[in-house]
Write a structure and sequence with these properties.
alpha/beta; Glycerol-3-phosphate (1)-acyltransferase; 7-stranded mixed β-sheet; 9 helices; 43% helix; phospholipid metabolism; AGP_acyltrans
């Protein structure tokens, strides 16, 4: 059965997804260049991400969507099991957002161009002034229900288990007084871990936890990190019984 699936991937899935990626990138760049980046920088990618899941025979179930308000800006923090985390969040979160991502992703053909034009936030910590510019860009984006998604582990897991969180997302939430919403992605590691090249069919569960609000004095970064980690971990290994 797996041999048939691999033939399908090579002859049908990969060519279709390559074409879809180019089309989505061109639409995003064109729409953003015309001044409609807020809309075109999100909704074409929702369809693109869902197409990745559909053609890969990956089912995504969401729970907890009632915990977020589409008119409120959040800092979403998620565990990072594999490449399908991106398609899961893009396709099924149901809340307009921008990614906080590595500078190296700018170099990916079409995808990097679309990300730049749609004003995804590329992290630049090369100097104090560069970090300040990153924060200023984030501040411009985080308004009117626009949110930010960050993988605070910084990289995909090698084992499926969570690594320690980095501070950046939580520092930003405190700086702009935004609630942090933990997201648990469960099952993406089985679909495509970082040490494999091709996905297998599977079931991914996305759990949207309740927002965690910074304190008024803004001196609770450690608490935000600890509570977010604990909430995300609590949703793992549930077998997607959603």
């Amino acid at each position: 059965m797996m041999i048939i699936y691999r033939i399908y991937q090579i002859l049908i899935m990969i060519p279709l997804l390559a074409v879809a990626t180019v089309i989505a990138a061109v639409i995003t760049v064109t729409g953003s260049a015309l001044g409609f980046g807020r809309w075109w920088g999100y909704y074409p990618q929702v369809l693109w991400a869902r197409l990745f899941c559909w053609l890969s025979f990956v089912r995504v179930t969401v729970r907890g969507r009632e915990n977020i308000d589409p008119k409120v800006s959040y800092v979403f923090v998620a565990n990072h099991q594999g490449a399908y985390d991106i398609f899961t969040v893009y396709g099924y979160l149901g809340h307009n957002f921008r990614w906080m991502m590595k500078q190296s992703l700018r170099k990916i053909p079409f995808v990097g161009w679309a990300c730049a034009w749609s004003q995804q936030i590329f992290v630049d910590n090369s100097s104090a002034s560069a970090t300040r510019r990153t924060m200023q860009q984030a501040e411009r984006q985080l308004s009117g229900g626009m949110s930010l998604v960050v993988f605070p582990e910084g990289a995909r897991s090698w084992t499926g288990e969570m690594a320690r969180f980095k501070k950046g997302a939580f520092r930003l939430a405190i700086e702009f007084n935004l609630p942090v919403v933990p997201l648990t992605i469960d099952g993406a590691f089985d679909v495509l871990p970082r040490f494999k090249k091709m996905p297998v069919p599977g079931h991914i569960c996305l759990t949207i936890h309740k927002p965690i609000h910074p304190s008024a004095d803004g001196h609770d970064q450690a608490r935000l990190m600890e509570e977010s980690y604990r909430e995300i971990e609590s949703g793992l290994h549930k077998g997607c019984r959603c």
